[in-house]
Design brief:
Layout: H1 2-21, E1 24-28, E2 37-46, E3 50-51, E4 58-63, E5 66-71, E6 73-74, E7 80-86, E8 91-98, E9 104-112, H2 133-159
Antiparallel strand pairs: 1-2, 2-3, 2-7, 4-5, 4-8, 6-7, 8-9
């Protein structure tokens, strides 16, 4: 019985450790202000702190059924990568950054190739792609409660001479 409870406690703790361990943040240059060419520099940090090297990030742009993928190459600084994005046609393009580590980060769409649009460019900010932090916290709390209950049951089993 003790081994079963110990195995249950360990199995509940593992998902919380896995959920807490691997995410990256992506910072990048502001999107183009009408130009169809965008030399973009990406800064990719594990947990928002540690520069990530040895990954293969990509910038993916989409407009209707047109999709282009641009590989980013190391820029010579830890965690910094550079890609040359060329939008094939004017219009509103959606783009994401595949960080090459754990996720795709979505950013607001950008309008390119139409200099008549005099709107102020929006600073790039990710709208997702990172881990679900509230879920990871909930899993960690549930695992802690389960481990506490398992420990309590094991103490009761030890103190009850009729249990086997």
């Amino acid at each position: 019985m003790r081994k079963l409870l110990a195995a249950l406690a360990i199995s509940l703790l593992l998902p919380s450790a896995a959920a807490a361990g691997g995410f990256a943040t992506v910072g990048l240059d502001a999107p183009p202000d009408g130009s169809r060419s965008w030399p973009v520099e990406l800064t990719i940090l594990q947990h928002g702190r540690t520069p990530l090297d040895g990954i293969d990030p990509k910038v993916i742009v989409e407009h209707g059924s047109v999709r282009r993928v641009f590989a980013a190459e190391p820029a010579g600084k830890p965690g910094v990568y550079r890609a040359e994005v060329v939008f094939p046609a004017p219009g509103t393009w959606h783009y994401v950054v595949d960080d090459g580590f754990t996720a795709r980060h979505t950013f607001p769409p950008v309008r390119v190739g139409d200099r008549k649009d005099d709107s102020t460019p929006v600073e790039a900010a990710s709208t997702g792609g990172g881990p679900d932090i509230p879920l990871a916290i909930a899993v960690a709390i549930a695992a802690g409660v389960a481990a506490g209950l398992a420990g309590r049951a094991m103490r009761r089993a030890r103190s009850d001479p009729t249990s086997t």
